[in-house]
Design a protein that fits this description.
466 residues; mainly beta; 15-stranded antiparallel sheet; single chain
């Protein structure tokens, strides 16, 4: 749109019939409502911050090069060019046509976001007007992940270079009246993400003016508008902790975490948090954790008090934002060795997941049975074989299991050894042993280990009726 001409128009234009790049439909969870403490908030050399559903968003602008006049403003809802959530207007009147003058607005998020989409209105151009040389809008788009992943525009009015992220108005499209055509000059951009910022750089540029050599001076002023910014938050996970038989503080590590330091430092990796129960048997929902990368497994490992153990091998989870994330509204995930594994397929943009874990007090317990391979009678020199089976009937793993047989015979006491895992209940493989004979290293709940030994009957046993 030409800055020198006043036009009235609707903001809800229809996109041109030809898309340069197509994009699939995405459900956006959040809409940016610009924070404008005063009407027409100036952004050049300043900033404006607002929060949308815990995501802090800061908008700021810079100007470069010589300009006859320029401004970057947030215009509030209800203004002449404002939408229901406000709009940014970029007015640019360069002093020369060599694209050395421009202004840039940057929108920065306090966490990685996905599916960012917005519209830029009035990328247009036309012939000389009121003794000013011809003019064309030129707009560059960028982000922390590079140019947009998809752009939809009317190719008869706007060209777009996907490699450089540059949109340019096609010259002389407004040759008849010089008026802005908002519908034809509007483009829609999408960043699949994750991104932490996007930027829009606006130039008031020249058209190809035949017969004019070198730089044309003072191109006519131009204005574009940035509107309808929507996005989807990173995935989130919270643990609902229940402790039966008491209360305590349970510590966790999250393998797929993210730490943000303002204004722009993001560190992906393991993060830590804790949940403290208050009443036995009553769940407490811990702090919401940002899952740093979508489509990536998150392992939540508990390192709570030694007196507590996770009581189940699965956890029930819900996604309160399943309409956006497309997760199931409820699902189960595996729990093993005090670690909850959230599959990559459930770590989706927009997900707000809560998984329930119950801990019970540690209660170690073992039972033992002993059998002989003969019921008798026996004679001196008879060899009796004994089998000992020790089952873990508690709820915690017992380490270094050994058996001693107080035999009371007159011969050499049997020495139990040659241990084997007799019964391995699910989850398999959680009972382990080293090569040392006569001691089992780790016996998990429900599993049974077997030892064997033998005793040779001596005459004294017969004589004394042992």
């Amino acid at each position: 749109m030409r800055l020198l001409r006043v036009c009235a128009f609707l903001l809800l234009g229809v996109l041109g019939s030809l898309g340069l790049l197509s994009s699939s439909a995405v459900v956006h969870a959040e809409t940016l409502n610009w924070n404008y403490p005063v009407a027409n908030t100036a952004l050049i050399g300043a900033s404006s911050t607002t929060t949308v559903n815990t995501v802090s968003i800061t908008s700021s602008a810079t100007a470069n090069g010589a300009a006859t006049s320029n401004s970057m403003q947030i215009q509030p809802a209800g203004s002449s060019n404002g939408s229901s959530v406000g709009i940014i207007a970029s007015n640019m009147d360069a002093s020369t046509d060599n694209l050395s003058s421009f202004q840039t607005v940057t929108v920065r998020f306090s966490e990685p976001v996905y599916n960012v989409s917005f519209r830029v209105l009035d990328i247009d151009g036309g012939p000389a007007f009121n003794n000013n040389p011809g003019w064309n809008d030129v707009v560059d788009f960028n982000s922390s992940a590079g140019p947009p992943s998809a752009v939809v525009a009317n190719a008869a009015w706007v060209t777009y270079n996907a490699g450089t992220g540059r949109a340019e108005a096609i010259s002389n499209q407004n040759a008849v009246s010089g008026n802005a055509n908002q519908n034809n000059g509007t483009i829609t951009l999408t960043y699949a993400g994750p991104i932490t910022f996007f930027s829009v750089r606006h130039y008031s540029g020249p058209i190809n003016n035949p017969g004019v050599a070198g730089d044309e001076t003072d191109p006519a002023g131009q204005v574009i508008y940035i509107d309808d910014v929507t996005f989807t938050r990173s995935a989130r996970l919270a643990i609902a902790k229940t402790s039966t038989g008491g209360v305590g503080t349970f510590n966790f590590s999250n393998s797929n975490g993210l730490t943000f330091t303002a204004p722009s430092t993001y560190v992906y990796g393991t993060t830590n948090f804790s949940v403290t129960t208050v009443t036995p048997g009553v769940a407490v929902v811990g702090p919401s954790q940002i899952l740093g990368v979508v489509n990536t497994t998150a392992v939540i490992t508990e390192t709570g008090p030694a007196a507590w153990v996770v009581s189940t091998t699965t956890a029930n989870c819900t996604d309160s934002n399943s309409a956006v994330s497309t997760n199931p509204a409820s699902f189960t995930v595996s729990v093993a060795n005090n670690a909850l594994t959230l599959p990559a397929t459930n770590v989706r943009a927009g997900a707000v997941i809560t998984c329930s874990l119950t801990n019970v007090a540690a209660a170690p317990a073992l039972t033992i049975t002993k059998t002989a391979n003969t019921a008798g009678p026996v004679n001196a020199t008879t060899v009796i074989g004994y089998t000992y089976r020790i089952r873990n009937t508690g709820n915690v793993t017992v380490n270094n299991v050994t058996v001693a047989d107080v035999h009371n015979g007159y011969g050499i006491d049997p020495v139990p050894g040659s241990e084997i895992l007799f019964n391995d209940v699910a989850p398999a493989g959680d009972s382990t042993d080293s090569s040392i004979n006569a001691s089992w290293n780790a016996l998990a709940p429900g599993d049974t280990v077997q030892f064997t030994s033998s005793y040779t009957v001596v005459q004294a046993d017969i004589d004394n009726l042992q």
